[in-house]
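User: Structure please.
Assistant: Input sequence and predicted structure:
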Amino acid sequence: MNKKIIGILVLASSILMGCSSAKTLSKIDDGKVVWNYAGSLPAQKGFEKNAGVAGLLQGTIEKYIVIGGGANFPEALEKGGKKVTHKDLYLLEEKNGKLETIDQIQLEYSFGYGASVSVADESAIYYLGGSPEADHMRDILKVKIVDKKLNTEIVGKLPLGFENGVAQYRDGKIYYGVGKIENAEGKLVNGNQFFVYDIKENSVKELAKFPGEARQQTVGKILNDKFYVFSGGSNVSYVDGYAYNFEADTWEKVGDVVVDGEKILLLGANSLKIAKDKMLVIGGFNYQLWNDANYYLGTLKDEELKEYKANYFGAEPNWYGWNRKILIYNASDDTWKSIGEVPFDAPCGAALLNIGDNIYSINGEIKPGVRTDRMYKGIIIR
């Protein structure tokens, strides 16, 4: 998509979002967002170019963005290409509207789809699980910045391997779970377990189980001092939501992800906390298409399966109907609403971060097996 078309779509998206009397992230649902291209990442070491990834380690430390790892398919998925999980970690700083790489290192192992938690009190990012390598799928990795250089250390181990779940920091502890969790055979499977990791004690305790079906790629944030978890999927898609009460160690049902009568699947989406009681969500696969694809890919055989794969993986990104709506969930009145759409291909597995009032959407999957190398900056304006 050329810059002129993106500019037109940005303007249209901004008009849809209305006006705001205050330039602040917490007022985004009353304002408008203008999105601009913010650059692309350098190639991972050993590769000629960076084709983009999904499932990144992601976080912010003061004015810096840290991202890395993640996976892609260097060879087309419909042609039998295999998933590659990367080892590179990047330190980014915004300069003149673009995100510039000021440090790039490689870990000794590949990592992706773990849970990232930025802990401002420590100027650090904790990354839980998230590696296809058995020796590292239980790692608790700590990332810091020392003299504008990335510094990483494995500071602990989870009792079970973990990926594609949610995690949030509260009062010296990281609450995590509701994703793919290691079973007795050592395999990662959809789960509904929920845990707390005490950073100071370096210990993990299991809490009350998430009451919904076992699933992965949920979306969640702590709002009004409860941990809200929504949607996700297994072989079918879910739009239900639940809130965890820290004091009582119990869950309660909250509203489904439904906007104007439409069920919106947040599997593959990402979220930002924008106020004490609100979170913003971008991305997500299509509710019905996820169910259909899982069914047909699991039941068709031989030539029928080959034909379905060719049609399914060969379509253009807009055919898949992934969620382009910018969604706001308000925990105080338990409601969902849309404030417009992103003017680029709907991303799944993208990094979604903010520094101050600026929002950044980085990489992600834009159709099955295909990533984007692009980074976008969203500016909230009056």
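Residues 1-23 have pLDDT under 50 and may be disordered.
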